[in-house]
Amino acid sequence: MPLDEASFRIFDTLSGSIGSTISMRELTGKIRQFYGTGYYARIYNKLNDLSGQGLITLTKAGRSSIPSLNFSNYSLLSFLAEIDLRKTREFLERYKTFQLLLMDAQTYAHGNSQIESISMINPDRNARLNRAEWLIILHHMDPRQLADELISIQSALRNIASTRLIRIDPLLLTESEFSDLLTSADINPLKEMLSNRTTFYNPISFWLNIGEVLLKSGRIMFAEKETNPAKLSDIDIAYGLSRFGYREMGIEPREGRAICIEYLIAALLLHGSARRLDAIPILLSKNKVNYSLLIFLSKKYEESSRLLGLIKALDTIRSSPQTETAIRLLQSLAVEEVKADSSRIEEKMELYGAIR
Predict the structure, then answer these.
(1) Which of 42, 75, 84, 337 is deepest in the core (most CB within 10 A)?
(2) What pTM was computed for the model?
(3) Are 222 and 195 in contact (CB under 8 A)?
(4) 46: exposed, middle or buried (C-beta count within 10 Å: 0-12, 13-18, 19+)?
(5) Domain for residue 121, yes or no?
(6) Quick check: 258 pLDDT over 90?
(7) Same domain for 87 and 186?
(8) pLDDT at 210
(9) pLDDT tens digit string along 284-295?
(10) Which helix or strand (DSSP H or E) is residue 315 part of?
(11) Do the domain assignments include residue 56?
């Protein structure tokens, strides 16, 4: 069955709002906002038709019906993949200079069996800035193999970026990391990326991943608003520090938003005071951190040099496979270290019981 325009608009809108409770009227409003037109009666009839085909689930909520995508229907995944391919074509019609870039990326990914899918994040906004922000999902692999694979992929992407005269900021996640971030209760970049992305390499694999996580977890939620760590409030930062085991002297934390530790560390890097920078090695040593995500944020916000110095200081005090891998990754990106004061950091870590 070909994908008609009404179905395209419904699937595209719902796929960017997974986890949100949207009534038929709200869906109509979103379609009108995104596409310029949208008529309730037509959308109502089409939703009922798609529900009859098992592609959409309609759940009663009082006098309203809440539509959602039925990921247990494989045909839905093929339609969502078709939408991504159409949106990729339309993107390349608007930004013809990106055609060779995507071709290079597809050619490289086709020859790398570890890459599952590649998605453009906020493609139009980034294209106007001559920049590409990509989410790359990798197959699960042994941690010892993963570090070498990440370095290899980053190197290939840097070569592509240099050839095509564009900046590429990639976030590389394994399937398990993707699932963990997607189902986390914390505010994190991955959930914010997915509401405005287009998968240009292997979209069926991307949607299979989404469907698998959703069916296992029961509920996931995309976030439409992007968090800027530079603009996190002092309340959110103090609350985050307290959540992750660092209590600022003289400050009584109040309840703030539950932001992920990677966003918190990026905020501390951007705020830049010595007191808050000293907290970073303590946070890293006391918590599980996704270093791929943290390095992605540090590159995006131009704070990789300071992060490298802090991780190297931590590694001299308390080495671990994770810090060693993070140092290798940052050095492979040609990051120049801003040295941190190891002796002061060690004193702080002893104070906070972060040296074992």
Answers:
(1) 84
(2) 0.94
(3) yes
(4) middle
(5) yes
(6) yes
(7) yes
(8) 96
(9) 999 999 999 999
(10) helix 304-317
(11) yes
